[in-house]
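Example record

The entry below shows one chain as it appears in the dataset: sequence first, then structure tokens.
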Amino acid sequence: MFNIFRREGLSEEIEQITPEEALKKISEEHIGGKALIIDVREPHEFNGNLGHIENAKLIPLRLLPLKIKELEYSKDKEIIAVCHSGARSYSACAMLKRHGFNKVRNLKGGMLLWKKNGLKSHI
């Protein structure tokens, strides 16, 4: 049976970041500005009970292939991908890396862990 979720060969390439580390990156100024947060959930999730991270850019995973060109200006910025639990954002990170985005990290545990750890989200 074909496994569409196989991550073979990518596990070492996609860096995970904890919610606390992500919050620090979001609030720090780096060369090129703050880290860019890309939320790959659907709009109803982004505005749902888990909320979203302040200033996150909503790009549902299904639309990411169509929006990659629009993100070219951010190729040198640190990007943190976010979803509900970390699975879709992992896929988003792999896709971005294949398109030459090298400073990509996956939010470990997604918005579930963000909220569980008591970090602020916007609804």
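Notes for this example: The first helix runs from residue 19 to 27. Confidence is low (pLDDT under 50) at residues 1-12.
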